[in-house]
């Protein structure tokens, strides 16, 4: 029972629940915007009274168009409001820390060599030179 309690009280579970609630509210706003503004414009382009009545030949494409538009609006807002600023913030943070993405990442072998050298220094020995590649 303690494990279940810990699972529920972990921060990421709470954050996920908040994200779902905000996502549902955000979806309602986008759907309302699409219903009130976008749908009438598209319905006029198809000479229909409502978007659900918009057809191409015998195919009723109005509902599909509304769903695609909703998706594109949500995706664009997520990208420009969430993802792009977070990327810029990460780049700025990395720049402040002196991290450059072009620098080669330190490998496990490099870390092990550093540990070996530190242990040899502590023992009063001269650190070994790495073998030629």
Tell me the overall shape: elongated
Using the 3D structure, state the CATH architecture. Answer: Orthogonal Bundle
**Class by alpha and beta content:** mainly alpha
- Proportion of beta-strand residues: under 5%
Q: Record the strand order, biggest sheet.
A: 1-2
The CATH topology annotation reads as: Non-ribosomal Peptide Synthetase Peptidyl Carrier Protein, Chain A
Helix count from the secondary structure assignment: 4
What helical percentage do the residues reach? over 70%
- Counting copies of identical and different chains, the oligomeric state is single chain
Name of the level-1 CATH class = Mainly Alpha
- CATH-assigned homologous superfamily: Large-conductance mechanosensitive channel, MscL, domain 1
Please state the average pLDDT score.
81
Q: What is the radius of gyration computed over CA atoms, rounded to a whole number of angstroms?
A: 28 Å
Overall number of domains:
1
Low-confidence stretches: none
How far apart are the termini? Answer: 55 Å
Can you characterise this structure?
The chain is mainly alpha-helical. The protein has one domain: Non-ribosomal Peptide Synthetase Peptidyl Carrier Protein, Chain A, CATH 1.10.1200. It contains four helices and two strands, in the order ααββαα. It has helices at 2-9, 11-45, 62-97, 108-122, and strands at 55-56, 59-60. Strands 1-2 form a two-stranded antiparallel ribbon. Helix 2 packs across helix 3 (62-97). The longest helix has 36 residues, at 62-97. The model has no long low-confidence stretch (mean pLDDT 81).
């Amino acid at each position: 029972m303690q494990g279940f309690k810990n699972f529920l009280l972990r921060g990421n579970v709470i954050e996920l629940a908040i994200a779902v609630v905000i996502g549902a509210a955000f979806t309602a706003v986008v759907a309302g915007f699409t219903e009130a503004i976008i749908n009438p414009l598209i319905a006029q382009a198809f000479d229909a009274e409502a978007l659900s009545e918009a057809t191409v030949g015998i195919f009723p494409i109005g509902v599909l168009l509304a769903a695609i538009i909703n998706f594109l609006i949500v995706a664009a807002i997520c990208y420009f409001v969430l993802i792009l600023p977070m990327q810029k913030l990460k780049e700025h943070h990395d720049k402040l820390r002196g991290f450059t993405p072009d620098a080669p990442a330190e490998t496990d072998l490099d870390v092990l060599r550093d540990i070996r050298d530190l242990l040899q220094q502590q023992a009063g020995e001269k650190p070994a030179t790495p073998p030629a590649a």
